[in-house]
Amino acid sequence: MMQTKDQCQGCSQFTTCYNCETTITPLWRRDEAGNTICNACGLYYRLHQVQRPVTMKRNSIKRRKRFNPHLITDQSNNKRMKSKEHETTVISSIQSLLNLSQPDHPILSNLILNPTQFEQALKERRDHLQKELDHITHLLSKTTEILNTVESILSLSTKNNHPPSFNTIPSLYSNSPSTHSNIHLPSLHLFSPS
Length: 194
Hints:
The protein has five helices and two strands. The protein has helices at residues 39-48, 69-104, 106-113, 115-160, 171-175, and strands at 28-30, 36-38. It holds the Pfam family GATA. Keywords: Metal-binding, Nucleus, Transcription, Transcription regulation, Zinc, Zinc-finger. Residues 11-64 form the GATA-type domain.
């Protein structure tokens, strides 16, 4: 039975919920018995299979915050436009860098245009520098050996009061490789005993 209140023949009718007796709802529903119920009571019954308690009745309708689809598309369009503006700015910055780098700075243009080839060139350069460093380290160790030999000979010669001569240090010539024979030895005649 539909719950409408007729106070008189000419008066307007208003609908009330059979369960909670509210008169305000965004949507009227019917229960299994055919009674008119408010949206809240109908949804509660569908979810819990029991009538909604009257204590849960509200005086105002609680509305969900919904997104305006027009607002969302406007925001996404704004994001796309800002993204395109940013992309254009980045591209123009890269182009200006390339224009600056073309005649004077080929390294920069290679880095931007072909990063993998640039990385390979850097690795080759690093390997070459490592070989040079190893060679210099080897030369330094040989030099240290030579200096240690000279020191020991000098200390022996000063103990014996004999001036050092090149005949007493033949190892200096035999240890030095022919490719590095441009090592200049100090003039040893300056070390005369006093």
